[in-house]
Design goal:
By secondary structure, this protein is of the alpha/beta class. The chain contains 6 helices and 8 strands; from the N terminus they run H-E-H-E-H-E-E-H-H-E-E-E-H-E.
Length: 197
């Protein structure tokens, strides 16, 4: 384990030891690896020895710029969630403007959406773009993905969901554009939308 720690970094290991459980995607997230395998998208599950709950914590752990850590935010209007997937920018997000454009509604109507819980299979600190299959169209009606040109094929870090302690020790490395591709191929154009940032 000591050599692995040196190779992967003091706080990061791709191979768990006796004190670190192997976290697996929920069975209803199996589409991620199926689509990735079919379309030769490289995904890499990462197992950390330090739990993280924020993009800044993850960036510090990895030694990466915050812009390579991607967050999934879920806002609710009382009827269901809209997901926003965006790299950490360190700047406040104008949620009303993003939702208004992404949903084709006024900023006033977009103001109804609030952070209020999370969809099934995740919790604050583990929110992921890759929702449970059963949540699509029921709990989550749309996912809007920010489209910053600078990240197209860049490998980024995302949380993978889960509600147990080991979920806070786990993430996935994946090319940024592949997030949209996997969601698009699974749930279709009406469910996922790329939006210029």
């Amino acid at each position: 384990m000591e050599l692995l720690s040196i190779f992967y970094g003091i706080c990061l290991s791709n191979i768990p030891d006796n004190n670190l459980l192997m976290f697996r995607l929920h069975p209803e997230q199996g589409y991620v690896h199926e689509i990735a395998g079919t379309y030769e998208i490289k995904t890499d599950m990462r197992y950390h020895t330090v739990p993280t709950k924020t993009c800044d914590e993850k960036a510090a752990l990895l030694g990466w710029p915050s812009s390579r850590v991607v967050k999934a935010l879920y806002l609710c209007d009382g009827n269901g969630y809209i997901g926003l997937v965006t790299p950490e920018t360190g700047q406040p997000i104008d949620f009303r403007a993003v939702l208004a454009e992404g949903l084709g509604i006024t900023k006033n109507k977009a103001g109804r959406y609030r952070f209020n819980g999370t969809p099934a299979g995740m919790t604050y600190g583990t929110c992921t773009p890759f929702i449970l299959e059963s949540s699509a169209g029921k709990q989550v009606s749309k996912i809007i993905i920010a489209d910053p040109f600078s990240l197209k094929d860049t490998v980024v870090d995302i949380s993978v969901g889960g509600e147990t302690d080991d979920a806070f020790l786990t993430s996935m490395h994946i090319p940024y554009d592949a997030i949209h591709e996997i969601l698009y191929r699974k749930f279709g154009e009406g469910f996922v939308k790329k939006q210029e940032q």
